[in-house]
Amino acid sequence: MFAAAARAALTNAYRNGARVRAAAPIPKKFVFLFFCFSIDTPVAHRERTSIFLRRRFASRFSHPDAFVVSRRPDAFVFSSFRLSVVVTPPSLAALRAADKHTLVLVRHGESMWNLENKFTGWVDVPLSPKGHEEVIEAGRLIKDAGLLPDVAFTSLQKRAIRTLWHVLEETDRMWIPVTKAWQLNERHYGALQGLDKQETVDRYGKDQVLIWRRSYDVPPPVVDRSSEHHPGNDPREGKWTEWMGGGGGERGYGEDARPLTCARATTATATYAGFDFPDEWTESLKTTLERVAPYFEENIAPVLRSGKTVIIAAHGNSLRALVKGLDGIGEDVIAELNIPTGTPLVYELDDDMRPIPQDGSFAPLNGRYLGDQDAIRARIEGVKNQTK
To answer: Where does substrate bind (predicted)?
Structure first.
């Protein structure tokens, strides 16, 4: 948490009835040094933060080295060389509320190959009619929850892109910046892509197929460059540049999480260019996580920390990989986790991108699903039963 979050937290405390007591009138500029810790913040973290604040505001204070933060069981104490202030919040939740960052995850609606029970992976199949209905309803649920995305991310696959379009249309947010990234693609199923799931069970056995589908680090059989399913044969392998100017086009975010301005160009992250795919290719959930997690940390987390509400429309396995990292889910547990199609999953994250627990979440997740909870459980079971 940094200075902006501190100011927001203090303002929120005032609005929610916090009592403030000072030994002397509070100089207006002193408010900018307030830093609100949760009751369980480690001492070392408080000390590091105090050092940061002293350095950050050294030019504004006569005695910056005297700035100290401490706490009592029921209050926070902020002290400078000449001033001591005690803030007693009505609840810790009131202080934490200003510091949370909202992330909305949506797995694409049912695709035609979900309907036909085929392994899809990176094959670019469309939504089924039911899938369109699912994600239109997802958009309505997001709107009804009062969630207004500021920035959107999705994969290169049309079922996720179309899902995002439906959600943004239902929430009247079609105008927000959208980034398409292959790192958010579904897990590549190698030689299983295009095969009927039940026929694959009949051929290889249920146990082997479940290992390929649900194990953390055992990938399916590979494809080589002679296969149409090798990513090196994808037309998106070429490199392209998107110009942001006069005619419009999609607006994006630069490395510093600030919007790209007109007449500025960016090499789109949307293609596979620059990635050296090996001659033999397949993915496990582990290798999917190895592309999803760095992309999230480098491109999405900075946008969340800047105060934007972010929505990601992606896929069952890329989202499983993401929540594994967010929630710290073990390898054995993630193997049994299923994320249903077309169902918004809402996370509240702190500044370290750690989930804030929410009432009504389905363990081991700390995010909460929007919608009819019994129907959501039925959808989860439906995903689980695809190879039975």
So the answer is: 107-114, 120-121, 159, 186-189, 197, 213-214, 316-317
96 to 1, 73, 169, 308, 347: CA distances (angstroms): 11, 16, 31, 17, 14
My answer on whether 200 and 84 are in the same domain is no
216-256 pLDDT, tens per residue? 999 999 999 999 999 888 877 644 333 333 333 333 333 34
Which listed residue (101, 108, 166, 230) is catalytic? 108
Q: Specify the 3-state DSSP secondary structure of 9.
A: helix
- Mean of pLDDT over the chain: 76
Is 111 assigned to a binding site? Answer: yes
Here the tokens at position 300 are: 């999405």
User: Last residue of a domain, which of 97, 112, 132?
Assistant: 97
Closest CA to 336 of 203, 214, 157: 214
185 has binding-site annotation: no
Residue percentage of the chain with pLDDT more than 70: 63
190, 221 contact by CB (below 8 A) = yes
Q: Is 64 in the same domain as 134? A: no
Phi-psi map region of 274: left, alpha, beta (phi>0 left; psi -120 to 50 alpha) = left
Q: Are residues 266 and 282 in the same domain?
A: yes
Query: What's the CATH code of the domain at 111?
Result: 3.40.50.1240
- Catalytic residue of the set 134, 137, 186, 348: 186
3-state secondary structure of 79: strand
Confidence (pLDDT) at 5 = 45
254 assigned binding-site residue: no
CA-based end-to-end distance of the chain: 47
Q: Are residues 283 and 366 in the same domain?
A: yes
Whether 29 and 77 map to the same domain: the answer is: yes
Q: Are residues 104 and 68 in the same domain?
A: no
- Smallest CA-to-CA distance from 313 within 190, 135, 118 is with 135
Pair (134, 49) in one structural domain: no
